[in-house]
Design goal:
The chain is mainly alpha-helical. It has 10 helices and 5 strands. The strands form 2 sheets. Strands 4-3-5 form a 3-stranded mixed sheet, with helices on one face. Strands 1-2 form a two-stranded antiparallel ribbon. Helix 6 packs antiparallel against helix 8 and helix 8 runs antiparallel to helix 9.
């Protein structure tokens, strides 16, 4: 249907992971295994934290929340990818695209802010051990989680509203295996300036500013650890924060590379690899790294 010079798009075509039929069963098996491991691992961590009273501490409070977010995050894209690997034509209804964008830009920023809160928890535990229970009491934990949720919600609503205002004419092929803003913006025939400014602004708010806070926290943590005289004490202190540092590096680096670059940079194998790492592998790696 057309209204003036604009096309009312009812559905989008997705490029998918591959056009090679022989690779589809292999990719389906890999993604199904990754999805199962991610869901079982993250829900297993949540169950352990809830059932074991010894784990009712600030660090495991944030870890349980992080695991729930990872479960929801990978479930927003992985089932769709699995279905599309089984069908010859990958389509997505128009209304489903903004919905997927909303959850992508709600769950991922929430996770960014939780990782920042976990860095503060590590700082309080190592740099302020005598005041730890006061600094990270139940009220503080709840407030940090709530503020993280509200900031993520503001990010998601902004991107979803701007995405719903985009107008499309002609091509409907999204050069991606799920619906996200950068490839969707490339299809639009309307001005993309507001969308790209929003992406750049929230990349700062969601990724760069929290990452700076994490770096500041760990500067203090490393300085405090180096003041510990015993090698065993330093080893235990470093192991306490090692898993968190690893996940911060993986998550923040991929998120910044995916969203701080202009839309012209989103093409080719590099974009595919970053998206898989950011959307699928990170939620699977979290329970593995934190369990170790």
């Amino acid at each position: 249907m057309k209204l003036g010079n604009e096309t009312l798009v009812s559905q989008f075509l997705l490029e998918g992971l591959t056009d090679t039929e022989e690779l589809r069963p292999l990719l389906f098996a890999i993604f199904l295994l990754v999805y199962i491991v991610a869901v079982v691992g993250n829900l297993g961590i949540v169950s352990l934290v809830v059932m074991d009273s010894r784990l009712h501490t600030p660090m495991y409070f944030f870890l349980a929340n992080l695991s729930l977010l990872d479960t929801a995050y990978i479930s927003n894209t992985a089932p769709q990818v699995l279905v599309h690997l089984l069908v010859p034509v990958q389509t997505m209804p128009y209304r489903a695209c903004p919905t997927q964008i909303f959850f992508l830009h709600f769950l991922a920023p929430w996770e960014c802010f939780l990782l920042t809160a976990m860095a503060y928890d590590c700082y309080a535990a190592i740099c302020q051990p005598l005041h730890y229970l006061v600094l990270m009491g139940q009220w503080t934990r709840t407030r940090l989680a709530s503020i993280s949720c509200l900031l993520a919600l503001a990010d998601a609503l902004t991107h979803t509203i701007f995405a719903s205002l985009l107008k499309f004419r002609g091509p409907r092929l999204i050069t991606h295996f799920f619906c996200d803003l950068p490839p969707l913006i490339k299809l639009s025939c309307s001005s993309m300036q507001a969308n790209e400014l929003a992406l750049f602004f929230f990349s700062f708010v969601v990724a760069l500013a929290p990452c700076a806070l994490v770096v500041i926290s760990y500067i203090h943590v490393v300085a405090a650890i180096l003041r510990i005289r015993s090698a065993e004490g330093r080893r235990k202190a470093f192991s306490t924060c090692g898993a968190h540092v690893t996940m911060v590096c993986v998550f923040y680096i991929t998120s910044v590379l995916c969203y701080i670059l202009p839309s012209s940079a989103y093409s080719g194998l590099w974009d595919w690899v970053l998206s898989v790492l950011y959307v699928v592998l990170t939620p699977m790696l979290n329970p593995i790294i934190y369990s170790m």
